């Protein structure tokens, strides 16, 4: 068993920085040496530095370039921000498209339902027709079109008398005359519910 405390160290220990700079050198002295060394290294290639008159032109050119680059960089940055904002708006529109389509469809359904509830039902229209029709007129056909509008055909020997009687009934005010044709011994007046 060997005792490690008795063995001498074979590696060289690094010397402290103060020993490198000289004994008793203060922090300020070391900083001064570093700055002097930097100045000497910077001033060493004096032959590479431009002459004083040319140096003034280089400084002026650099300032002019910086002044010119300001608006260019501003415009470039604004364009980049605008592109990002446009992309974000497109992404939001794509995510919201199904919701907006559903909302439009729901609004259309509400409008159709409101229009259907505002107009009188088929039973109310037939009762009003029974009250308003002249005795010689008869109801030939009642139905709904593809758009849900009420369609009527009424046979009467005198269509003008029929139209006058229908105008007197308030429930039938929503019917409009769409035409007439010759039927079996009478004129057939065609009526359609107004789209509201």
Give a short synopsis of this structure.
The chain is built from five helices and four strands, in the order H-H-H-H-E-E-H-E-E. The protein has helices spanning 17-21, 27-43, 52-118, 122-132, 159-168; strands at 138-144, 150-156, 175-182, 187-193.
Notes on the protein architecture:
- About 4% of the residues have low confidence.
- The longest helix has 67 residues.
- Strand 1 and strand 2 form a beta hairpin.
- This protein is an alpha+beta fold and 196 residues long.
- The protein has 5 helices and 4 strands; from the N terminus they run ααααββαββ.
- A 4-stranded antiparallel beta sheet has the order 1-2-4-3.
């Amino acid at each position: 068993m060997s005792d490690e405390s008795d063995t001498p160290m074979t590696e060289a220990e690094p010397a402290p920085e103060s020993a490198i700079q000289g004994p008793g050198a203060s922090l300020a002295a070391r900083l001064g040496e570093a700055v002097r060394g930097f100045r000497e290294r910077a001033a060493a290639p004096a032959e590479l530095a431009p002459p004083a008159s040319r140096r003034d032109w280089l400084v002026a050119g650099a300032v002019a370039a910086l002044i010119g680059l300001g608006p260019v960089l501003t415009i470039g940055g604004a364009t980049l921000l605008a592109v990002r904002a446009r992309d974000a708006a497109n992404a939001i529109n794509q995510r919201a498209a199904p919701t907006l389509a559903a909302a439009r469809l729901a609004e259309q359904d509400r409008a159709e339902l409101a229009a259907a509830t505002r107009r009188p039902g088929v039973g109310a229209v037939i009762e009003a027709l029974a009250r308003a029709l002249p005795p010689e007129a008869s109801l030939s056909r009642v139905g709904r079109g593809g758009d849900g509008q009420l369609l009527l055909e009424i046979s009467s020997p005198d269509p003008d008398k029929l139209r006058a009687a229908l105008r007197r009934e308030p429930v039938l005010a929503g019917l409009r005359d769409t035409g007439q044709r010759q039927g079996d011994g009478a004129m057939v007046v065609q009526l359609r519910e107004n789209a509201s």
